[in-house]
Specification:
heterodimer, A: 280 residues, alpha+beta, 5-stranded antiparallel β-sheet, 4 helices, 18 strands, elongated, B: alpha+beta, 2 domains, 3-stranded antiparallel β-sheet, 2 helices, 23% helix, 31% strand, cilium (chain A), flagellum (chain A)
């Protein structure tokens, strides 16, 4: 009866999948949202024990030896990980000059009370102090155009401004223009530059909620040679694809049901074992 | 599975709020000086089942983590302060701001409120007032038996009487700007109030310091674009439907489990 855990693991995995789809669909209209996708893996129960602990026959195989693996011969399903799909979302015009839509792999750098975070959500506004902020009041940082190699130099690290010193302040009574490089201009010229950064490995980013991402590894940030363009007056829609999500949902649902059939079969087999065979 | 139910419920609630905002925009499609609002969403917190970078064995680590999100929420309804189109009325007391800024209105309790709705007129005492009878800041009194009244681009109000050739200067209508007009609070009746988020009002002579110029004899139409609103409405409805489908599937899966025995 221990084999009932095998289909069960499949059901748990499908349940996780539905939960992920639910989150994608719930965020179908969230600005700058990037959908998640789950990857399953075959999880050999054999691997939960060290190789040395398993009594795998090291001699030539014979049927009797099969049972020496002591219940670790099953292959379960496990969720391997959730990938965030960083596909470009659609840019839609908003007629709001402080909306910026990013096109490319970049992220805006913002300062939250708990540190520097990254976001694709470009609906910015001005605080009353004249700082460029997100709608939660997190301050948008200005660009630090140095390579990571230079930042890692122990002597140089001190001389570069801290995130607190890079808060972007702009004049408040003039029309702002933001060009494709992220430079903020008034009619008097450039007054600042939005910090748009890219990452060596985007998949190392972690979602934190509130449309923010955090990088566990500072060296992953790429500050120079940014290919992302900044589009003023546009917002990036979420990249959730309705058809895809719905078909994935149907698939997950049907898989779940067929796994349920397998569990039912297990149940009726053990029912036979207990009742019918017991009659003899 | 209960989590998927909750997650899609948060999505449905967010879309419902979105439809509320859209319907308010559409309801105010002909409201003078109305600025449309836009619902903005955020994703909620994530449960990190498996941290990226955690050890997967002695000397390797997981390259990707496993995170399960818990839905969406409305983070803001943002007013879009884009210019509405002018409507010529030929009423000499009607004012419209072409550009940034707001006209000041003294509420009955003496508090200063702000508006883009310049459909003004004079009351029995000759005060320049809004339709609701609130006085326009700083208080312009129009004398009786005037022939014409002229309001200049910079807000100077001049009246021509039958008795004299020279016009009488009645005062000047200022234009207030805010560092962050998005932070203003809508108080209904086409009035807005300053908040901690918008910052203090800055009083300008119309046309100076980036404030707009005044236009006499015109009012500003609402900046609601019905086509955009309808598209947003369709998007909201479809998103709502998708969420309810997910909820239905989560429910059916729960039902399947419950029917095992």
């Amino acid at each position: 009866m221990k084999n009932i855990w095998v289909p069960l693991s499949g059901q748990v995995a499908q349940q996780r999948k539905v939960e992920t789809i639910a989150n994608n669909v719930a965020n179908a209209n969230t600005v700058g949202f990037k959908k998640d996708q789950l990857v399953f893996k075959e999880h050999l129960t054999a691997l939960t024990q060290g190789v040395e602990d398993i009594d795998i026959p090291r001699k030539e195989f014979s049927p009797a030896d099969f049972y020496h693996t002591q219940g670790v011969e099953n292959a379960m399903v496990a969720v391997d990980g959730s990938f965030t799909i960083f596909e470009q979302g659609q840019l839609t015009p908003t007629s709001n000059p402080l909306d910026v839509g990013l096109q490319g792999d970049g992220f805006l750098e913002v300062l939250t009370p708990t540190g520097v975070r990254f976001t694709r959500k470009g609906n910015l506004s001005l605080s009353r102090e004249g700082e460029l902020v997100t709608d939660q009041g997190f301050k948008v940082l200005s660009s630090l155009n140095v390579s990571n190699e230079a930042l890692r130099e122990p002597a140089a690290a001190e001389s570069f401004p801290k995130p607190e010193d890079r808060i972007l302040r702009v004049p408040t009574n003039m029309k702002l223009t933001i060009n494709q490089d992220g430079e903020v201009l008034t009619r008097d010229g450039v007054v600042g530059k939005l910090s748009v950064v890219e990452f060596q490995d985007k998949h190392a980013l972690r979602k934190e909620g509130n449309s923010l991402y955090i990088t566990p590894d500072e060296t992953n940030i790429n500050r120079t040679n940014i290919k992302t363009t900044v589009n003023q007056g546009f917002l990036e829609g979420s990249n959730v694809n309705a058809i895809e999500e719905m078909s994935e949902l149907i698939k997950a649902h049907r898989h779940f049901e067929s796994i349920q059939k397998a569990i039912n079969t297990y149940d009726s087999i053990s029912g036979k074992a207990a009742n019918d065979i017991g009659k003899f | 599975m209960i989590r998927a139910l909750h997650t899609s419920a948060t999505g449905m609630a967010a879309q419902e709020s979105n439809v509320n905002t859209i319907s308010n925009n559409i309801a105010n499609v002909n409201t003078t000086g109305f600025k449309k609002a836009r619902t903005e969403f955020d994703d909620l917190l994530y449960e990190t089942v498996q941290e990226a970078g955690a050890k997967s064995s002695g000397n390797t680590e997981y390259n990707v983590g496993h995170q399960v999100g818990s839905g969406a929420r409305v983070s803001a309804t943002r007013k879009i302060h884009s210019q509405g189109s002018p409507q010529m009325t030929n009423n000499p007391y009607d004012l419209m701001i072409n550009g940034e800024g707001f006209m000041g209105v003294v509420a009955p309790n003496g508090e200063l409120k702000y508006t883009r709705d310049g459909s003004f007129n004079v009351d029995a005492q000759g005060n320049l007032v809004t339709r609701a009878g609130h006085r326009v800041f700083p208080g312009i009194v129009v004398p009786p038996n005037i022939m014409r009244i002229n309001i200049a681009e910079n807000g100077t109000v001049e009246a021509f009487t039958r008795d004299s050739v020279e016009p009488i200067n009645l005062g000047q209508v200022p234009v207030f700007t805010f560092v962050n007009p998005t932070g203003l609070r809508s108080d209904g009746g086409n009035l807005l109030a300053a908040t901690a988020g918008s910052g203090q009002a800055i009083q300008n002579v119309a046309g100076e310091n980036g404030s707009g110029i005044l236009m006499q004899g015109a009012i500003e139409a609402s900046n609601v674009n019905v086509m955009n609103e309808m598209t947003d409405l369709i998007k909201a409805q479809r998103a709502y439907e998708m969420n309810s489908k997910v909820m239905g599937v989560a429910d059916q899966m729960l039902q399947t489990i419950n029917n095992v025995r």
